[in-house]
């Protein structure tokens, strides 16, 4: 398979109300099997989303929850479910003093452009809406798909075998992301070429209908192992409400397991700790009050960290 990435020349500045599909159809000749990659910025511009609102105010409006914050940098989960720096808000390639947020429905935007291209050209092509994002543990950024239509966003290899006969269990190429990244390399950051046509895509990637969209690439919170930054997770476990988002339930941890973990390093008798449903009962004597307080805080914090609401009840041991 040979993939060819062809930037569409001459689109220029996009204004509110512009027909993106018409801008594309007027400047290139599409073919069956093409994938059209469109930057989210021109989708937002055509929708009139450019704003002069203060960035902090706009960021708050676009944020579902904060994942991590270091100085002026905020990594947040948006209302789309996408985790990005500054909720994907951008002030590059736009008029000075304006900010561009992500489109509110990237999959819907991809579907609309796809339908409009079919009206104009008679061809049903796939469409990807791309945006630039950083990666945890990796320096630099790459474009990812935040919306798509007519394209298989991710291809699960589960149940297949490699050429050596090894069974594949977790291999799942993120096709839409990989095409978005390649399109960014072809377009360049400063070439004013916000649309790239990808030719030669595997027919197995192409769909007759819109498909599941790029939302299929988003991990749900229950399976997100990194829903909070390290500092934020520690703070949430100490002072957060029970349970907090970003710290999903750990089905492998029983309440007795959490009790054993909380007792680690403490000089508190295990025999004075019992479990009653979702409540941990601490039986204490006069000399155990301080240790019981420490243990109670540990239990609540570890419960939050494992997505489990734990109640703590303290009773007095019979006095001799």
TrEMBL record:
<dbReference type="InterPro" id="IPR008225">
    <property type="entry name" value="F420-0_g-glutamyl_ligase"/>
</dbReference>
<keyword id="KW-0464">Manganese</keyword>
<dbReference type="GO" id="GO:0005525">
    <property type="term" value="F:GTP binding"/>
</dbReference>
<keyword id="KW-0436">Ligase</keyword>
<keyword id="KW-0342">GTP-binding</keyword>
<feature type="domain" description="Coenzyme F420:L-glutamate ligase-like">
    <location>
        <begin position="58"/>
        <end position="200"/>
    </location>
</feature>
<keyword id="KW-0479">Metal-binding</keyword>
<dbReference type="GO" id="GO:0052618">
    <property type="term" value="F:coenzyme F420-0:L-glutamate ligase activity"/>
</dbReference>
<protein>
    <submittedName>
        <fullName>Coenzyme F420-0:L-glutamate ligase</fullName>
        <ecNumber>6.3.2.31</ecNumber>
    </submittedName>
</protein>
<keyword id="KW-0460">Magnesium</keyword>
<keyword id="KW-0630">Potassium</keyword>
<keyword id="KW-0547">Nucleotide-binding</keyword>
<dbReference type="InterPro" id="IPR002847">
    <property type="entry name" value="F420-0_gamma-glut_ligase-dom"/>
</dbReference>
<dbReference type="Pfam" id="PF01996">
    <property type="entry name" value="F420_ligase"/>
</dbReference>
<feature type="domain" description="Coenzyme F420:L-glutamate ligase-like">
    <location>
        <begin position="11"/>
        <end position="48"/>
    </location>
</feature>
<dbReference type="GO" id="GO:0046872">
    <property type="term" value="F:metal ion binding"/>
</dbReference>
């Amino acid at each position: 398979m040979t993939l060819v990435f062809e930037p569409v020349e001459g689109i220029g500045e996009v204004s509110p109300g512009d027909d993106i599909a018409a801008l594309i159809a007027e400047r290139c000749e599409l073919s069956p099997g093409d994938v059209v990659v469109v930057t989210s910025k021109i989708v937002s511009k055509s929708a009139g989303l450019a704003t002069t609102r203060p960035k902090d105010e706009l960021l708050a409006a676009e944020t579902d929850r904060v994942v991590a914050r270091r100085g002026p940098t905020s990594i947040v989960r948006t209302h789309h479910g996408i985790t990005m720096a500054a909720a994907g808000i951008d002030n590059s390639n736009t008029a000075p003093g304006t900010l561009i947020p992500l489109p509110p429905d990237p999959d819907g935007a991809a579907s609309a452009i796809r339908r409009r291209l079919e009206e104009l050209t008679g061809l049903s092509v796939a469409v990807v809406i791309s945006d630039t994002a950083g990666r945890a543990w990796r320096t630099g950024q790459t474009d990812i798909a935040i919306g798509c239509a007519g394209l298989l966003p991710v291809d699960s290899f589960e149940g297949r075998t490699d050429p050596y006969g090894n069974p594949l269990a977790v291999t799942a190429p993120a096709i839409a992301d990989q095409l978005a990244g390649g399109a960014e390399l072809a377009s360049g950051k400063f070439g004013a070429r916000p649309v790239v046509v990808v030719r030669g895509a595997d027919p197995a990637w192409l769909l007759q209908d819109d498909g599941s969209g790029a939302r299929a690439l988003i991990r749900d919170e229950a399976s997100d192992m990194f829903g909070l930054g390290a500092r934020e997770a520690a703070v949430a476990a100490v002072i957060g409400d029970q349970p907090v988002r970003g710290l999903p339930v750990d089905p492998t941890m029983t309440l007795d397991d959490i009790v054993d973990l909380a007792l680690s390093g403490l000089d508190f008798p295990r025999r004075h700790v019992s479990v009653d449903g979702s409540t941990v009962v601490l039986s204490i004597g006069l000399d155990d009050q301080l240790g019981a307080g420490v243990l109670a805080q540990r239990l609540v914090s570890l419960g939050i960290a494992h997505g489990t609401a734990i109640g703590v009840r303290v009773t007095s041991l019979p006095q001799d």
